Amino acid sequence: MAVDPPPRPRTRVVLADAAGRRGGTDRARADLHEQTPIGEALVKGLMRAQLALALRLALVVAAGLGTLPLLFVAAPAVGGFKVLGIHLPWLLLGLLSFPFLVGVGAAYVRWAERNEQDFTALIRRPEQ
Amino acid sequence: MNPYLAPGLVVVVLLTVAIGAYGLRFARTTSDFLVASRSVSPSWNAAAISGEYLSAASFLGVAGLVLRYGVDVLWYPVGFAAGYLALLLFVAAPLRRSGAFTLPDFCQVRLKSTVLRRLATAFVLFIGCLYLLPQLQGAGLTFATLTGGSYAWGALIVGVVVTANVAFGGMRAITFVQAFQYWLKLTALAVPMIFLILQWQSDGRPAVTPPQGAVFHTATTVTIEQDAVLDGTVQVKAGETLRYAAGDAVPAVSTVDAEFGQAWLSPGRESLFATYSLILATFLGTMGLPHVLVRFYTNPDGASARRTTLVVLAMVGLFYLLPTLYGVLGRIYTPQLLMTGNTDAVVLLLPEAALGGGHLGRMLGALVTAGALAAFLSTSSGLLTSVAGVIFTDVLRPGRNGSIRDFRVATLLAAVVPTGLALFVSDMDVSRVVGLAFSVAASSFCPLLVLGIWWRGLTAAGAIAGLIVGGGAAVGSVLLTVLGPTLHVGIAEFVGQPAAWTVPLSFLVMVGVSLFTSRRVPGDVGATMLRLHAPESLRS
After folding, report:
1. CATH homologous superfamily for B5-395+417-535?
2. Which residue among A17, A30, A54 sits closest to B90, beta carbon to beta carbon?
3. Per-10-residue mean pLDDT for chain A, 128 residues long?
4. What ipTM does the predicted assembly reach?
5. pTM of the entire structure?
6. CA geometry: angle at B195 spanning B189 and B196, to 5°?
């Protein structure tokens, strides 16, 4: 983690009805101050990095879990295969899929935070 | 009746009220509630989200489906958990940074369209009702199973109790209450399971799938509820009582759809289309459920929203290890449920069936029932609160000075439809109805959120068209399945499990129409994207 950011003025956000009436001006204005073409390109870069990361990990899940139904149909013998007395599909779906999902999630959190730290460092670098 | 039951249920209700009252000291108004919640650590927050998420469908329904159909339905728990991974990867942090509190609110923030907002409101109401329905069904079923009373009374009582609770603020969606409910639900399944496995060991590890098909473990009496044919030969009438000795084969009843032989053990019962449809619906539907999004706002910032989601994924995954085991052991100890079709009751009946009617069996039976009660209370209260909130702000529109009375009217409105429906559709598997709610969420809000967060080109017109075409197709399919006539087998598959075609349809229409109306991309999309994706530390 980086050093704690300096405290910023607290924004009061009211329930659902508020967002419409405010018209998004006062909230967006603060952000708009930084809206230069360079700033825009930087944000696009961050989005691209985060999306690529998310898609890559989604692909890992699609390959790891999403191909299982096809595998069971294509090779029914897999369904009869036993590990420790338990049929493989039961073991894969009932037990191993959960730690797999958590592992992918943990990897995502770690890398997504690294992307954000890189972005923050890029923005905060001293002016030359 | 089980003597430990009433005290157990009273303790759950009292503890819930006590913790709620303790929490209320920190949260007197809505904004107090939000501020107090912002100081909550990710692990408490995650327990609260999990507590609200693990519903009757998870607590009772998954085990019932496993008992009935075997390995193919394991995609339900896997999908229910994996939904949080999709939420984490594509939605969690940007959604928190958007500051949106409800899904209609997100539409407003991102696309500035009132029409879209109203449409989103309609979808939230539909999904909320559809998701409340199985909770009440589960409650009715539990009531009928344990007291022998009628199903309708059980559904009605829980419907009224939850409505009164939410309307009078007796159980606000307070972090500590929901967190307590998570640990209660986990304990209520885990502790009896330890004893059940020990019992199974001491019984000499009876086979889950004996070669001759399911058999009765002990002498059992079964009352037939509908006229039926046993094993395709013997006619039985409703009300008839059948006696079986230990070791007798369980006959297949013509009115109950279940797997009896080795097919239970291996995949392939469901078609590939149905399986992938279910996977899409559950993986992508979680992010569109109305009560899930509200809780994300209680995180202090985007990064902690991510960490919270990861902990939720772990907690939900841990929980889902258990219902499968109940379903499997149910094959041995409660095979009569395969004859009555009342498989959703397996979690409730298994402890007494396996451990006998002694004190241990009864105490553990009371414990799982208490867990089931926690499941109904937490999920339906959370759902009802968020649906009533949307009715309050978007339908009744009381203006800034909306009174508590208006909120109570909204709660009543939100509760009437699902309660009424629950009285009429009692014969559907709890998890199936939940699966339908997920397919609607996956084909409406998932594309809206994912495209809204990651694609600058999305326009209000595109989002509206996608919601109407893709979401509408899913809604139509659900209505046809729940209320419509019996369909031809080929069509029934596409309609009964629609996500595999409605989700891509919704994405395609949203992208296509947005490209056609690309001139109407909101002018401040750059600012919105900065807000959604830049870490909070850069805001000033």
Report:
1. Sodium/glucose cotransporter (1.20.1730.10)
2. A54
3. 58 53 40 58 84 92 88 78 80 89 94 87 63
4. 0.87
5. 0.85
6. 75
